[in-house]
């Protein structure tokens, strides 16, 4: 009896959903064979998305994290911002029919990207203007067994210093603030200058009404990007190459 009632409720829900949604699935929504689950550090983890959120895209980001030290004996560097190109790896998620990679290869992509490609930024204009440091949109090919990985968009800090993800090719955008932070696992790749892997983050909508279709972003499986101590970098501004996975969530629509 309870079971029947439950089924009936589910059917009502499904019918309501079907009526509310267009027949064609939205192209921005990932279609999965296996249910994707967020990577774990093996110890403390970032909290899961709240109910009602669906995964829209998994991306790789490759670029720089920039920092400032007021003096060489400042306790910690201040984060100034970040710039990165984003690439779509949604279809490479392990278990995805035909295109999924195995877990080991998939999780290694951020490190492979960091070490095999030059930074996709015009570093000669770096620092001048957030509108011009990017190179033209370009796909990448980082492992021989898979075809190109498509350019998805750009990550930068906007004029209000808010982390922004502009998923240009699919018309999605996230303007976010930090919500949770955990250390990368000890085994994480320490990056080109050996300063360590930047923390994993849970970022939530900034509430500025700038986001479009996205409201939650995770940064995980980071490679490089951590600041050097000020006594090493000295006073002034500096940047550290990094790559990471970004998981983008939005409300069911
Ligand atoms: C994963 O895929 C890579 C590349 O195809 C292969 O070299 C490796 O042996 C695979 N690993 C596992 C555990 O299947
Ligand atoms: C650091 O990143 C920010 C945000 O993307 C950018 O505006 C700035 O030009 C970069 N460089 C410096 C030195 O702040
Ligand atoms: C993170 O998000 C949760 C849920 O919205 C909120 O309760 C909490 O205050 C946030 N924490 C920070 C540090 O923003
Ligand atoms: C460092 O970057 C900040 C923000 O872009 C800028 O205001 C400052 O003048 C820079 N400092 C130096 C020493 O270049």
- Describe the global form: globular
Q: Largest sheet, if any?
A: 8 strands, antiparallel, barrel
As a percent range, the share of strand residues is 25-35%
Mean pLDDT: 86
| pLDDT < 50 stretches | 1-29
Give the N-to-C terminal Cα separation. Answer: 32 Å
Number of strands: 8
CA-based gyration radius: 20 Å
Strand order of the largest sheet: 1-2-3-4-5-6-7-8
- Per DSSP, the total helix count is 3
Question: Which percent range fits the helix content?
Answer: 10-25%
| Sheet/helix structural class | alpha+beta
How many domain modules? 1
Reading the helices and strands in chain order gives HEEHEEEEEHE
Q: Could you tell me which ligands this complex binds, including any ions or cofactors?
A: 2-acetamido-2-deoxy-beta-D-glucopyranose
Q: Please state the oligomeric state of the protein chains shown.
A: single chain
Report on the structure:
Helices cover 15% and strands 33% of the residues. The protein has 253 residues and is an alpha+beta fold. The chain starts with a helix and ends with a strand. The protein has an eight-stranded antiparallel barrel with strand order 1-2-3-4-5-6-7-8. The radius of gyration is 20 Å and the shape is globular. A hairpin with an 8-residue loop joins strand 1 (53-69) and strand 2. One 2-acetamido-2-deoxy-beta-D-glucopyranose is lined by residues 179, 204.
Main features:
3 helices; disordered N terminus; 8 strands; eight-stranded antiparallel barrel; alpha+beta; binds 2-acetamido-2-deoxy-beta-D-glucopyranose; 253 residues
């Amino acid at each position: 009896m309870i079971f029947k009632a439950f089924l009936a409720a589910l059917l009502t829900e499904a019918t309501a959903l079907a009526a509310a949604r267009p027949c064609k699935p939205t192209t921005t929504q990932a279609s999965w064979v296996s249910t994707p689950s967020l990577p774990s550090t093996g110890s403390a983890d970032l909290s899961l998305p709240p109910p009602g959120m669906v995964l829209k895209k998994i991306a790789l980001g490759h670029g720089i994290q920039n920092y400032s030290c007021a003096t060489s004996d400042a306790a910690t560097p201040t984060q100034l911002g970040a710039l990165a190109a984003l690439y779509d790896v949604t279809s490479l998620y392990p278990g995805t029919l035909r295109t999924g990679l195995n877990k080991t290869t998939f999780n290694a992509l951020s490190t492979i990207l960091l070490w095999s490609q030059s930074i996709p930024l015009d570093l000669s204009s770096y620092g001048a203007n957030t509108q011009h440091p990017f190179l033209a949109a370009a796909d990448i090919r980082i492992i021989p067994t898979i075809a190109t990985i498509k350019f998805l968009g750009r990550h930068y800090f906007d004029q209000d210093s808010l982390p922004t993800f502009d998923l240009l090719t699919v018309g999605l955008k996230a303007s976010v603030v930090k919500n949770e932070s955990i250390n990368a696992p000890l085994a994480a790749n320490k990056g080109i200058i050996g300063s360590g892997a930047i923390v994993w983050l849970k970022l939530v909508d900034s509430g500025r009404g700038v986001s479009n279709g996205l409201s939650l972003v995770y940064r995980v499986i980071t490679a490089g990007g951590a600041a050097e101590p000020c006594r090493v970098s000295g006073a002034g501004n500096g940047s550290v190459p990094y790559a990471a996975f970004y998981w983008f969530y939005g409300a069911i629509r």
